Description:
There is one protein chain. The chain is of the alpha/beta class. It has three domains: about 5-75, Winged helix-like DNA-binding domain superfamily/Winged helix DNA-binding domain (Arc Repressor Mutant, subunit A), CATH 1.10.10.10; about 80-160 and about 265-290, D-Maltodextrin-Binding Protein, domain 2 (3-Layer(aba) Sandwich), CATH 3.40.190.10; about 165-260, Periplasmic binding protein-like II (D-Maltodextrin-Binding Protein, domain 2, 3-Layer(aba) Sandwich). Helices cover about 40% and strands about 25% of the residues. It has helices at about 5-15, 20-25, 30-45, 60-85, 100-105, 105-115, 130-140, 185-190, 200-210, 225-235, 275-285; strands spanning about 50, 55, 90-100, 120-125, 145-150, 155-170, 190-195, 215-220, 240, 250-255, 260-270. Strands 3, 4, 5, 6, 9, 10 and 11 form a seven-stranded mixed β-sheet that branches. A two-stranded antiparallel sheet has the order 1-2. Strands 7-8 form a two-stranded parallel sheet. β1 (about 50) and β2 form a beta hairpin. The longest helix has 25 residues, at about 60-85. The model has no long low-confidence stretch (mean pLDDT about 90).
Amino acid sequence: xxxxxxxxxxxxxxxxxxxxxxxxxxxxxxxxxxxxxxxxxxxxxxxxxxxxxxxxxxxxxxxxxxxxxxxxxxxxxxxxxxxxxxxxxxxxxxxxxxxxxxxxxxxxxxxxxxxxxxxxxxxxxxxxxxxxxxxxxxxxxxxxxxxxxxxxxxxxxxxxxxxxxxxxxxxxxxxxxxxxxxxxxxxxxxxxxxxxxxxxxxxxxxxxxxxxxxxxxxxxxxxxxxxxxxxxxxxxxxxxxxxxxxxxxxxxxxxxxxxxxxxxxxxxxxxxxxxxxxxxxxxxxxxxxx
Length: 290
C-alpha cells in the first residue's frame, strides 16, 4: 500500500474537499483524485461518496481512517527518529488544547521549550478541551492539554498537570456585592453565565451544584471562558471561572460550601509512540506529565 495514497486519503477525509487537500499536499486536484482512485482499486472498495461539491466517507472509508492515521503517524515517527539519530531534538509536535490553557498556562513553558529546542516545529490547535481530547483519540494530535471532568477513555493515558481553583465572580456593581454574606440559595436566584455543554468546566460546575441539591439559572452560555468572563464583567450574570482569570473588573464572592477545583491533564493515546519532541515537551511540564 502506497503511503502517499494513504496520506492523500487522510487529507481528503479531514478537509472533505479534493481541491483544499490538493493545496495542502502541493499537488494538483487530478493528482489527488488519482491517488484516491488507486487506493480504492487496491482495496476493492469505494472510500468517498461525492455528492455535488460535498465529499463524505463511505462505511469502508470510516473503517479505514483510524488505521490510516496510526500507520501515517508511525511512519512519521520512524522518519523522525532515523533523521535525528545523533542529532538534537527536532521535528513537528502537534498539540491540541483550549484557548484558556494557551493564554494562562503555556506561554512560559512554550518560551522555555522553544529556547531549548529551536528545531522543533510546534503546531498548536486551539479550541476546547473536549475537541482536543477527541482529536488525540483520533490520532490528529500527538498530545492534548485538556480540562477534565471524568476519567479519560481507557485507550487514552491521562496525567494531571495543573489543578485550577474555580471561583464565583460578578461585576463590581452586581447587587450580590452589597450582601454581607451571600449564600448558595441567594446565588441561585440570580442569572448565571456559564460555559456551554459539553465542556468539562461546565460539567464540573453542574456536578458541584448537584451535590448541593440545586441548579443554576443559566441565562447565557458561551463557548470559551474569556467570553464568560466578559459577560459577567458587564453585569449579565454571575460566573464560575478559574481564579487566575480574575481581574479588577470582577468581584469574587465567597459562597459557603461551594468550593470547586478542576484538573488540567496531559492526554496521549496508549497505542501511539511519542516522538522525541513530544517526550521533551512532556519533560518541560510541571510534574513531568507522569
